[in-house]
Amino acid sequence: MEKIIVYVDDAAYARDHMARLVAPATDAAGGARHWILVACAPRMTHRISKWVSHSARENWRAKWFAKTVAEVTPVLCGPGDQITPSLATGRLADMTQQLRLAHGASKVIDARRPKLGVDLEPVAPDVPAAGHSGWALPGAVVGMGALLVLANELGE
Q1: φ/ψ (deg, to 5) at 122
Q2: Listed residue (119, 37, 31, 42) closest to 76, CA to CA
Q3: Of 1, 9, 117, 130, which is least surrounded by CB within 10 A?
């Protein structure tokens, strides 16, 4: 059985991304796969503790986790497939290493939604971050470019 670790932070993006990647397996176990689904909950600022208790934050993370797993599972489930959901904690590279040791997973897929101007934390040294282009534009540079184009159009 092929074991695959999948990192997800946005269910809708992950469904689309995984639908393109998931193809009928051709391994000797009849195509069965063991998916280790790691959900990366959105970060909350440390200032949120002024308004929300720790237990309320953990409760929200648990609800987010359940909803995300429920939305992504139908795309991954095939005949004979297994899914082991997990909530990401700590550095993702360390978690990948622990999961590889525990499950012997051979493949890692980063299905996290890329964010403009933000370099995502790598999930493993040998796996490129999702949507990593090698460069990012700060908002100020984009704003200045738009301003220059607008000034040029008005000047003509």
Answers
A1: -65, 145
A2: 37
A3: 117
